[in-house]
Structure formats: structure tokens, C-alpha cells
């Protein structure tokens, strides 16, 4: 079955919410619709969906961060999920190829992906696409900026 990649639209919020739930980030369609408002309006971001037979079966979110240390941007894959019922059919690879192409269009000189350590299958997938795990030479620090 053919895979079609397109930009996400406001009408995709329910299907994206279902995919985010599979990734471990439960969300209601209304919450995702609100998020889509700022994602779809950001000229340095891309939200792509994969369709098979006209049904959304995957989503990828990219943001192009400006760099100060180089005259370029860094593409950051913020999320990638393929419906668990159709994994292994090339959908993730097709989404990543589209994300990388969009990152190039946005002036990115490289791509960055973060992934929880317990997602071994995802890590093998990214490695198979040529991504290197650089955690041994770069740390990642996170701090919440809101009160719980």
C-alpha cells in the first residue's frame, strides 16, 4: 500500500491525539487542536502526517532551532510515532526522509533526536537511518519552569 506524506492540518487533531497516546503521551483531541494552532503557524516548524489509503497512520514533528555557534539551524525531531498496527511497513522511514528534507529547506545543517533510554527499538531504527547516539559526549539537562 502506498504511503503519502503531507503537512498536518487542524482536522487531524483526533488522529494525532490517538498516535500520541500510543507513544505514551495521552491527549484529548481538543488539547491537540490547541497545540496545532501554534505548530501550524510556526514558520520554523513542520508537522507531517503519513497516510495509507487516506487514513493518518503516522506523525512527525520537526522544529528548526537557530544556532549561535554556526550560521545554520539544527533540526530537532520533537516527536515521531507510527500507528502500532502498521509498523514495519516503511512509514517511519518515509516520515524521516520527509522531515530531513524539510529540515534542509529550513536551513538546518544537522538533525537532533532525543529518545527515552527504554525505547531500544526506536534507537535501532534511528541508528539504521544513520543517526549516532552521542550521549557519551553531550549531556542533556531539563528543568520545569512551571509549578506543579
Kindly list the characteristics that best describe this protein.
single chain, 148 residues, alpha+beta, Aminopeptidase, 5-stranded mixed β-sheet, 5 strands, 28% strand, globular
Account of the protein in words:
By secondary structure, the chain is an alpha+beta fold. It has a single domain (3-128), classed as Gcn5-related N-acetyltransferase (GNAT) (Aminopeptidase). It is 32% helix and 28% strand. The chain is built from 4 helices and 5 strands. It has helices at residues 13-23, 29-40, 91-105, 120-128; strands spanning 3-7, 45-52, 55-66, 73-82, 108-113. The protein has a 5-stranded mixed β-sheet. Strand 3 (55-66) and strand 4 form a beta hairpin. The longest helix has 15 residues, at 91-105. 24% of the residues are buried. The mean pLDDT is 94.
Major sheet summary line: 5 strands, mixed
The rounded Rg comes to 15 Å
**Which CATH top level class fits?**
Alpha Beta
- State the end-to-end distance: 45 Å
> Looking at this structure, what is the CATH superfamily?
Gcn5-related N-acetyltransferase (GNAT)
Q: Which architecture name does CATH use?
A: 3-Layer(aba) Sandwich
Strands in their spatial order, largest beta sheet: 1-2-3-4-5
The proportion of residues forming helix, as a percent range, comes to 25-40%
What fraction of residues sit in β-strands?
25-35%
The low-confidence parts are: none
Amino acid at each position: 500500500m502506498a504511503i503519502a506524506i503531507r503537512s498536518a492540518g487542524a482536522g487531524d487533531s483526533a488522529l494525532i491525539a490517538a498516535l500520541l497516546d500510543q507513544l505514551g503521551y495521552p491527549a484529548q483531541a481538543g488539547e491537540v487542536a490547541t497545540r496545532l494552532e501554534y505548530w501550524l503557524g510556526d514558520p520554523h516548524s513542520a508537522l507531517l502526517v503519513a497516510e495509507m489509503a487516506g487514513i493518518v497512520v503516522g506523525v512527525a514533528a520537526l522544529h528548526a532551532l537557530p544556532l549561535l555557534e554556526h550560521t545554520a539551524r539544527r533540526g530537532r525531531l520533537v516527536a515521531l510515532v507510527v500507528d502500532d498496527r502498521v509498523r514495519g511497513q516503511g512509514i517511519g522511514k518515509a516520515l524521516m526522509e520527509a522531515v530531513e528534507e524539510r529540515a534542509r529547506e529550513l536551513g538546518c545543517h544537522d538533525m537532533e533526536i532525543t529518545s527515552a533510554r527504554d525505547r531500544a527499538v526506536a534507537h535501532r531504527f534511528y541508528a539504521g537511518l544513520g543517526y549516532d547516539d552521542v550521549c557519551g559526549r553531550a549531556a542533556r539537562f531539563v528543568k520545569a519552569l512551571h509549578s506543579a
